[in-house]
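ZP: hey, is the magnesium ion complex queued? I don't see it on the tracker
AM: it wasn't, my bad. submitting now with these inputs:
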Amino acid sequence: MMNKKQKIMLLRILVAVAWMIVLHFVPTTGLMRFILYMVPYGIIGHDILRKALKGIRNRQMFDESFLMAVATIGAIALALYAQSGEYTEAIAVMLFYQIGEWFQSYAVGKSRRNISALMDIRPDYANVERDGKLERVDPDEIEVGSVIVVQPGEKVPIDGIVLSGVSSLNTSALTGESLPRDVQAGDEIISGCINLNGLLKIQTTKEFGESTVSKILDLVENASSRKSKSEDFISKFARVYTPAVCYAALALAILPPLVRMIGMDLPADWGSWIYRALTFLVISCPCALVISIPLSFFAGIGGASKAGVLVKGSNYLETLSQTRIVVFDKTGTLTQGVFEVEGIHHSQMEDEKLMEYAALAESASSHPISKSLQRAYGKELDRSRVTDIQERSGNGVLAKVDGMKVAVGNDKLMEHLGIDFIPCHSVGTILHIAVDGEYAGHIVISDVVKPHAKEAIRALKSAGIQKTVMLTGDRHSVAEQVAQDLGLDAVYSELLPADKVDQVEKLLDAKPEKAKLAFVGDGINDAPVLSRADIGIAMGAMGSDAAIEAADVVLMDDNPLQIAKAIKISRKCLRIVYQNIIFAIGIKLICLALGALGIANMWLAIFADVGVMILAVLNAIRALFVKKL
Ligand code: ADP
Ligand code: MG
């Protein structure tokens, strides 16, 4: 459980304590006493003294080691000067400081390990069948399109499609969802899941580096490099604070005795004022603050990832906690993005043929509409028949099929191309099709809302979100219907991607600075809005890579209900951060005042410091645990 460094530290602590206990029962005096006491001081404090020296040499001396070194050496010097032989205090200060450090490194290491265990999704190998035998291969070496075998109990190493086999998958490490998911031939499968019972043959669709599992690990590993405002505050605070207390201590040591001597004609009493100044220095050590804040954020990010929500940095956790407005994209975000064909109207050719052209033209698009069309068409597509594909975000696609110009898209696309189309009055998303400039009919498709969408909106309301808004490129009638079903506060429809950005900017302008706006989306066309919003939330499973890349928070299982959960987690984490800041600074100020007044001695000071630190660290670790909602 402990690493080597921690074991050595523990040993040093124990040896020093034992030595002090023995010395307590052995009466010594003079130089012998000094030497005998300096041994445990050296054992426990040599690295601190070295660090302090190094700091002075590099002219970056105002750190904790410097405070500890000055305070303890000062105390020893005082004992020598007064010939009291009272070295115990200096050693005890060093000892407690090191016990605190040890506890902190143990707790931090432990929570880091917890988080990595949580994220224990990195697959070590992939099985490849060669000459009828399974071979274990480094997943990095598997090319796209290879066939890999995943046995029961193994992790799926690379994203792909199931070729054969049926099984249940445990996706909890990725999505926080504890129910197993059943898969069979033809299903898409993402890496990082655990195969529970059947043998699966999978054709890979991505390289290992591009697979879900690698992306997630990247995200989590880089998360702590993005600092939140609170963390920034702490490092700025420390930069001002440490020199300030050092000068204050110096003033405390020099000014009162001078005033007494010169101004009041009293004995200067140097010893007791220097002692107060040294106590003041020991008290001022800001360890609890410096340690517990980043640890709280780290634990918060870990807790969120356990719930299937990836937060890319502690700054986003902070913003998330202040979110008051949530703006949603419709297709793929609130709805499943799996369209069913409802009807084919005014077709100028056989329905089958119309579907074929539409599916071919859409064959390269990653839009949910395109995927649904290809599925509805159901037959193998010969992609070599399609050339010159152009996707018009928020409008549709243009392509050449068998050399003919085919356009598939909404009213706007037809208007833009100047094609005389027949408007449709059914409720649903309309795909008009034109071939070589002639109108060829339209396909009505419709989508259903996600099973948890309504609950998600309600959960957001009860989590204190003031406004929920939906933006969509889809038709007015469809948008209204969805908004009403879900109980959204506002809806804007028939927007192009650029209009979505405009609309979000309007909402950003209209809100108070403190209330943050989150945008939730899934598509490539949502990427600009995701980065424009105060905080961008992307769908992790269905979402496009561009959206996941642009987002600050990723929902692993595309469940909008997780947004409310993420907000609650972030609030809890921030609450803990503030508790720790207030607690640590408060106790610190009280002790500083007591020290300056000469009421607190060094013992009390170091006890208070280590105590505060231990409590703050324990409090920080609470952020790792999330209640089920
Ligand atoms: P949303 O904002 O709901 O996610 P989009 O902005 O992606 O929707 O698309 C808006 C509209 O543009 C769709 O409802 C559809 O009419 C049209 N459209 C977008 N992409 C395509 C496509 N690949 N094929 C056909 N129509 C499309
Ligand atoms: Mg969308």
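AM: back. The CA atoms of residues 467 and 504 lie 13 Å apart.
ZP: great, adding it to the tracker
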